[in-house]
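Quarterly update from the structural biology core.
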Amino acid sequence: ARLPFQVHVTFVSAKTKATITRVVTEARPVTRSRDAAVGNVDVGVLATATEQRTAVLARRGSYRAARLVHQQNKVLAAEAVHAAAGDARDRKKKKQAAAKWAKSAKAVSKQLRQELSDEEDDVAAEYDFASSGSGGGGGGGGGRGRATVYDSDDEDNEQDEVRVAKAAKRKARRNKRDDAFSAALFRGAQTKHF
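Predicted structure, tokenized:
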């Protein structure tokens, strides 16, 4: 079986300054055999696609999904290196591409783990706050005929301060994440995987 596809390339001619569009049409063979597919994986292309997909998911805040895509494709790259079809030169090229990717992917993986940890800490803190009884108002029984009186204004102000602090913490983490991901992805983009 073959898979047909087209690529449209538009450019400006250096001589005539006219805009030219070229269409390249080709059909590539496809397989249903996982072993054959893994053996023919281009590790450099896989690395670039994985970094892009991971970045998109992480920017949306889907850290678990980003980490899953990242880990699955690292395993696929390792399998591709071990099952490399072709000659020794092809295997060496795949090993080199996988090694370059491993270096640039380390920073992204570390950042994803940190973001997941921070997110879990936030959830735990919110749960602790909610279950500590600080979220309620009104009085409770304090003995016969006695009621505990809470100053609802003070309590509301406290809750507002906690919300503002959490929002500031989230914003700072998001900015830090954006900077760290940008730096890691910039380093990755500068590394040619193929």
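The two ends are 27 Å apart (CA to CA).
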